[in-house]
Amino acid sequence: MKLNQLTITQALTGLKTKKFSAEELTQACLDQIEKTNQHLNSFLTLNPNAISQAQAADKFIAASKVNFNKYPLLGIPYALKDNFLTQGLRTTASAKLLDKYIPQYDSTVQARLKQAGAVLLGKTNLDAWAHGSSTEASDYGTSRNPWNLNYSPGGSSGGSAAAVASHQCLFAIGSETAGSIRVPACWCGVSALKPTYGRVSRYGVIAMGSSLDSPGPLTKNIYDSALVTKVIAGHDPFDATTSSSPVNIQPAKLKLKKSLKGIKIALPKEYLVKEMDDKTAKLINKAVKKLQSLGAKVEQISLLDPHYSIDVYVVVQRSEVSSNLARYDGVRYGHPRTYFKHEAKNRALLGTYTLSTGYYDQYYNKAQKVRTLIIKEFNQVFKKYHAVIGPVSPGPALKVGSSKDSPMFGEVVDMLAEPSSIAGLTGLSVPCGFVNHLPVALQITGPQFNEQQILSLGHIYQQNTDFQKFPSTEYD
Question: By percentage, how much of the chain surpasses pLDDT 70?
């Protein structure tokens, strides 16, 4: 196995036993980026200091193994979605308006990864301003799915998902407003966690939907997602929406539990939507049977149709987009607002309309009332069940170009992730099979601030299946 193909856990073991150096590990990733990025367009900007950061990590490792306690991701190379600020390194949000923007400080997520000893390889592609679900809205060109270059990697964290699936990095960071971590993970066949809203700081993340945005990891297995989330999670004095509740993520404990005996899981019948691919539905049913064989009790329940969540999400998210985009102008960022492309203008105009006098009560206020109903419904479910499961997306990845003539493309492919995002819940994307040689994933949703519970459930499922696979990256 090549060094860039290692999981975080495998790499940490190798670094601790000095089988290889952090510099060699980082160089292996940089070599893979050089080899494959022309095909995938997953990275927008490389960190010129990546090798020197790896060399610094090697000095810490040589000094003492104890340093791994202080720096839990010491020497591990990663990719960062390009809407997270990085001091001294270009941050564009894949929008040409910010083409030359160099932040003066790090986002909290980046700062915590840096403090943990991780090595930043560079910044990954996304739909511009995170407005999209295919990466086709990027001002720097669409990213491609490593399983088939004719297909989309999903979005808006498409570049991050493609980077992990193609072994360009050991893990990547994405952000999700509704589906933007879980759906790219599903379509590219990697594992991912969307943390509870407020579990991970949004400070220094270019805002899209401020009451929805949640940073999280995309990794090569569920255990690695736990390792990364433990590092980036927790209260941040710079973000008033972060929770002060203790971070209950304990990766070592994931290995202790071997069965799901005593776990009750809900399967909403409404989540097997009419848009779902038949083969995907069969894989979800197989996943249900596997969970049952591991000791879980799975019961079908009824929840509000996820199509209602599309309506709520469109109104709330567009309203918040109109507010967040209003801050960008030529005085601060170098380019006038005429640099906004169609998708940004469309969302800002719709959001401004829903917030305007005479329409606020008709649209925005009504959407927030339905949002409250969704939250209350989930609260009732979690009084009886430990988790809710279903597909991540109605089917596998769609071809590049599928979003071109579909103004609601993203809302449809993300519809099964939208209810939990609207309710601020935590959720996993765990690979559960393949349809037409493209990966499909099981979604596991849990109560707010109970990441440990669904990580444990996902880890046990993953340990007893063989769906976490990676594509060949020998492109012509």
Answer: 100
